[in-house]
Request: fold
Amino acid sequence: ANALIYKKLGLEKKYDVVFIGANYGTRATYITYLRQNGISVLTKGSGWEEGNATPDEMIMLFNQAKIILGFAGVGINDDIFILKGRDFEAPLTGSFYITQRHSELEEYFVLGKDIETYATKEELLEKVRYFLSHENERETVARNGFDTCLHHYTAKAAYEKILGYLG
Reply:
């Protein structure tokens, strides 16, 4: 991720959960479930009532989020998961990030330490409730995710690694 774009702005955390991305597949099912269970979720992107977010607005909203929600599904499938750019972009804004659990994430992050994951909408709700009420733990995970991404998963880190291999 580009650390010059995805960065901490030092803004107050005023949104419980923020999701930015298109409304397709099972995303609305998860978000509706959270909302029906008393969780405030701000959504932006194609197909959501709140409309789209500009790139600058997205960075601002991520910074203002207590929790950034991610989805790892491919297209309309809820059983095929992949690593996404958002998995690195979101933590670089300094906010807590939670996404669908899949094995590829374990190659880049210590799950539960750098980022959090979920497998079902019920588990997502349980973890969102927990981390909304445990600010210190949430901020520790957010800080760990930021540090991991900043030191290992930026363009600068990639170039340094490649140049190191080349001598």
Remarks:
- The first strand starts at residue 15 and ends at 20.
- The chain has a mean pLDDT of 94.
- Helices lie at 27-36, 55-64, 86-92, 121-133, 135-152, 155-166.
- The CA atoms of residues 3 and 154 lie 6 Å apart.
